[in-house]
Amino acid sequence: MASVDDSKQFVSRPQMTSSMRSSSYLSDHQQYRSTRQPDAHHGIDTVVEDLSPSKAPSPKHFRGVPSEDAPPTIVDSGVNYSFSHPNCTPSKGASVDRLVATLIYKSKPKGAISPVPKSPIKGSASESTETLPPNMAPTTNMDAFPLEPPTQESEQLDHIYGSYISPLCITSFLHLMSTFPMPSEAEEPHSSHRCLDNQENPRVVELSFAPAPLSSYLSLDDLRKHEMIYRFEQEWNVDVNLQRESVWRRHPRLVVFDMDSTLITQEVIDLLAETINDPPNLAERVAEITHRAMLGELEFDASFRERLRLLKGLPATIFEDLRPVLDVTNGVKELIRALKRLGVKIAVLSGGFLPLTSWLAGELGLDYAHANEVVIEDGKLTGEAKGLIVGKERKRDLLVEIAAKENIDLSQVIAVGDGANDLLMLEKAGLGVAWNAKPRVQMEADARLNGDSLLDLLYLFGFTVEEIESLTA
Predict the structure, then answer these.
(1) What is the CATH number of the domain that holds 288?
(2) Which residues of the chain fall short of a pLDDT of 70?
(3) Residues identified as active-site
(4) Where is this region: Disordered (predicted)?
């Protein structure tokens, strides 16, 4: 009996006969999970599909390489990606007039709520650096429409929203730009921003936006000097540097510096005067003339000759004695190193004295150095100068000459200075930068830097702090 039962049990086992086989191994042996029965509760599955067994679709098995007879099943994930973006290159034949605003927060002493303009103290250029006087707008000329006359000073907002460039500061600036008339056929305004130094509490933010305000109504030069921009800077304690986005902005080829109060923190002629004890008030007299010349109240050429005559009789060795006294501005050495690694030519055009200017240029590794050459007889200064005085016209002409010699277009030239005698040089360059400058220069320059380090100049090229550290390493 046991053997019969075993036989019946063996016969009843399932077997795959030849009639049950197909020509596809995958079809014969594939496995799939049966359709899951819906849960007892009313879930999302019962909303998006009917999973009842009677209506469950039969599974479609993959039968090898996709073909017309057996196409692959394509499932739409719902994700859609487009290459089109407002910051992409425009379509063929079109152009985008995009502006870049580099906002740099002006840090101030702890506990200070509003900046207090400094009164010039004679004898030190660093001490005589001024901010714009209260209630002083970029223009008071009512004919210079659409510029506006000065109004009451605005309340500063950075101490409320943070001592850095806050999101509300960026929003406020974009709202300000949207108030200017736009071209009639321009695309919808769009913008993007980058924190160049710190994501959490940025001191430097680069904003790119388009379209730019209607140029026939407001040119870029007028926009830079507009009362609303000035007001915004005062409210948020920032410098707003507006540039037109172009390849030249990111790739300058020549940078020209003033020397006194720019590459160094002092005025050399004042240092020379301080070495003279007779008459006792000579240093103060020279500093007064220097200060007025930098403000633009005196013509530089005449004021320089007047000060030089007061230095008559100084020993020629005084220039060597002053070398250890020169205080190089913070960030200059790192900036020069970065510019040279970028292949940028560097020049110093000084209204000071050639012996010190040439020495400093050699120490810093500059390519060009121009300054005034004094007459020396019997080892002493005669109080006279040779040739042309390196004043505002001569600085401008030298900038053009150096650019031509190096075959550099002026659009790729940057000039940096602080005084009125630098204005023509700043105007001629593709970008003129006022460095901790006098009020008139602050108002007329293309860009303004009022920080602690001249290395901030690299932010105007669009470099991030990581890139700057790589260049200065």
Answers:
(1) 3.40.50.1000
(2) 1-65, 72-75, 77-84, 108-155
(3) 258, 260
(4) 1-71, 112-135
